[in-house]
UniProtKB/TrEMBL annotation:
Residues 50-85 form the EF-hand domain. It holds the Pfam family S_100. It comes from Xiphophorus couchianus. SMART domains: EFh, S_100. This is EF-hand domain-containing protein. SUPFAM superfamilies: EF-hand. Residues 90-100 have a biased composition (Basic residues). Keywords: Calcium, Metal-binding.
Length: 110
């Protein structure tokens, strides 16, 4: 399987695995989201972006429709944000998210 194919299928499979662990199917509650982050993010470059202590803030940020759970679209937004953080770390570009000027390629995002 090509690398991008694998990344896409992994994102879907991981979401479905944790979203089926109680509560509404195909949505992540706070505990499921916390478990997913703790078990599936091991890179120090990413792990410090969303820590167990910040789970409330992460949930607020991700839960755009304010239903107390994270749907697949909201989860994809999170994965995208983590990818951007990792890209900035690898390239030395950017700074703290949401601070200062817009980053290249991020104009118009919210």
């Amino acid at each position: 399987m090509a690398r991008l194919d694998q990344v896409i299928t992994n994102i879907v499979d991981i979401f479905m695995e944790y979203a089926d662990d109680g509560g509404k199917k195909r949505q992540l509650n706070k505990e499921e989201l916390k478990k997913l982050f703790e078990q599936e993010i091991q890179s120090p470059d990413l792990k410090d972006k969303i820590s167990a202590g910040d789970i409330e803030e992460a949930m607020e940020m991700l839960d755009k429709n304010h239903d107390g759970e994270v749907n697949f679209r909201e989860f994809c937004r999170c994965v995208s944000d983590l990818a951007k953080c990792y890209y900035q770390k690898k390239t030395g570009r950017g700074g703290k998210r949401g601070k200062g000027k817009s980053q290249e390629g991020e104009e118009g995002e919210g």
